[in-house]
Each structure stands twice: as structure tokens, then as C-alpha cells.
Amino acid sequence: MTISEVSGKYGLSVDTLRYYEKAGLIPPVNRKENGIRDYTETDCGWVEFVKCMRGAGLSIEVLTQYIALYAKGNRTLQKRKNLLVAERDRLKERIEQMQQTLKRLNDKIDVYEQRIVACEKKLLKGGVQ
Amino acid sequence: MTISEVSGKYGLSVDTLRYYEKAGLIPPVNRKENGIRDYTETDCGWVEFVKCMRGAGLSIEVLTQYIALYAKGNRTLQKRKNLLVAERDRLKERIEQMQQTLKRLNDKIDVYEQRIVACEKKLLKGGVQ
DNA sequence: GTATTACTTAGAGTTGACTCCAAGTCAAGT
DNA sequence: ACTTGACTTGGAGTCAACTCTAAGTAATAC
After folding, report:
1. First to last CA, chain A
2. What stretches in chain B show pLDDT beneath 70?
3. Span A73-99, pLDDT tens digits
4. Between chain A and chain B, how many beta carbons pairs sit less than 8 Å apart?
5. Cross-strand partners of B37
6. How many CA atoms, within 13 angstroms, populate the side-chain half-sphere of residue B56?
7. pLDDT range class, residue A127, cuts 50, 70, 90
């Protein structure tokens, strides 16, 4: 799979895909003899994983660390798990904060609705006079 | 209330507070004769609101727009409500995406736990031999 | 009366995460 | 043979959101 196909498949620009690889967010992508990237299913899996994690707000830095540990093999299992747990906890907290803000926005919108209705009533009354 | 007190109260740097005011994220703050900021309860309320919204990921730009509409008074009620609804919807989507990623992270962590246990068993067996 | 401390401003610098650009290679089509 | 188009690289540029700096003022402590 070429880089532009992968770009189309996951909705990431080719620049972003190259940047992710260069930054070490995904392991080095498989190449053809001439040096052109030829994404395997595994490569695509990494792209999808990184897209998902970035979408949830995990930083480039932490994902780079994860891949670096992954590249060191089995003896980093515990470290990788610890990293994931830390990020999971942070994500959970952010979600909870966002849920509170969502509730607050909903309440605010309700208040606006009431105020708008009240305004319209006033205008109607004015119109009748 | 001075800017550094407000900074302490809400955990925002004084630079950030001045930046928010300059950028129009909060209405102009009350001043003493000598030009020094003297935050009223209302000013603090705005700071808290902006902190909350920024914490949930609403952009500087959209919050600036909201304040600009607010400053124009009652005739912008509907526009303000529309803006809030749009941001609410975006927030909701982001939360849903993050919840899916949270679930995925939890599953991944479970898999790591199992692999780590399996590894330890192997090591123990090796030790017995 | 001077040193310290907290404030003021305009504007420059930093960080994270891309995004774009120039210059070059290579295979395919006419 | 030559153009076209997709790829390659290193490195520069951009954007949002701060964060810092320099130069200055004004009240308070010694």
C-alpha cells in the first residue's frame, strides 16, 4: 500500500504520515527496493492505532515513548503497561472534566432557551399594543 | 482582587489572565485609578467560565466570539445560543470518541496484564529447574 | 530616600503538532 | 526522448496558545 492510499484510508495527510514515522510514532515502514514506502497490514495497524490515540489527545511524545519501548521487545512489557495505565488515567480524568462541562453547557443552553422565549413573548405583546 | 490572587485562585498564570483579557476571552477587567486590575466577583466568574471551557477544549477563537456577542447585548441571544449548541455538539462527539479510546486502552492494558503474568510463570518454571 | 515588590504595557519567543517547499529520483505514457 | 505524476529527503514555515522579556510606574519596608 502506498503512502497516498494509506492517507486516503485513514484521513491523515501524507505529510503527517511521514512526520509520524520520522518522529517515531510508528515503527519504520516497510520499503520497496527503490526506497518508496509500501505499507503492510501491520504498518496500517500502527497508523490506525496512532490516529486513534492522537484523536483522544495522547501526545506525540508519549506515543513515541511507547513505540521506543515496543521496539526494545518483551522485557519492556511492564513499562509499556505502566505508560498505558498512566495515559488511561489521564484520559479518564479529561473525559470526566469534559462531561461536567458538557452538562454545564447544556444547562446554559436551557437558560438561553427560556430567555429567548421570554423575549419573544415580550415582543408579541408589544406588537399587539 | 489582584491579578496574582486570581491567578492563585484559579491556577492560571498572570500572563494567561492578561492574555485572555487582551484577546477578548473575558470582558475588560475592572481597574483601580492607577490602572491596576481589581477583579470583581463578576470578573472572577468570567475567568472561571473561560477556564472551564478551555479545559474542555473550546478554542480561544470561539470563546472570543461568544464574549463579543455577549458585549452586544440582548439582541444576540439567539446567536449566542447557536454558538453554544454547536460547541456542545462538538464536545459531545469528542467525549464519545475519547470514551471509545478509553475502552480500547483498558482492553489493551488487560492484554498486557495477561502477558506479564504468563511471562512471570515462565520465569518461575525456569527457576525451579 | 532608596530598595523591594507587585503591578503595567508592547512585543518577542517558545512549544506542540503539523504543513509546506525545493530539489531530486524513478517508472509509465506518448 | 521527454513529460507527467507519485514518490523521496531535509528543512523551513505556520498556527494556536501561551510564556517570557524589557522597560516603566507606584506603593510599601527599612
Report:
1. 72
2. 126-129
3. 999 999 999 999 999 999 999 999 999
4. 83
5. B31
6. 27
7. low
Residue whose entry in the numeric block shows the C-alpha cell 472572577: B44
Strand D footprint nucleotides (protein C-beta < 7 Å): 6-10, 16-21, 25-27
* pLDDT single digits (tens) A53-72: 999 999 999 999 999 999 99
The β-bridge partners of A31 are: A37
CB contact under 8 A, B91 and A80: no
Interface test with B, best of A53, A109, A122 (most B CBs within 10 A): A109
Distance CA A1 to C1' D27 in A: 70
Q: What does strand D contact on the protein, if contact means CB under 7 A?
A: A 2-5, 14, 18, 22, 31, 35-37; B 13, 15-16, 19, 34, 54, 59-61
CB of B88 within 8 Å of any CB in chain A? yes
Instruction: Provide the pLDDT for residue A129.
Output: 57
Beta carbons within 8 Å of A66's beta carbon, 6+ residues apart: A80, A83, A84
Are B95 and A102 in contact (CB < 8 Å)? yes
- Cα angle B29, B31, B32 (rounded to 5 degrees) comes to 160
Q: In terms of DSSP H, where are the helices of A1-129?
A: 3-10, 14-23, 41-55, 60-71, 77-128
Provide the grid cell at B91. 464536545
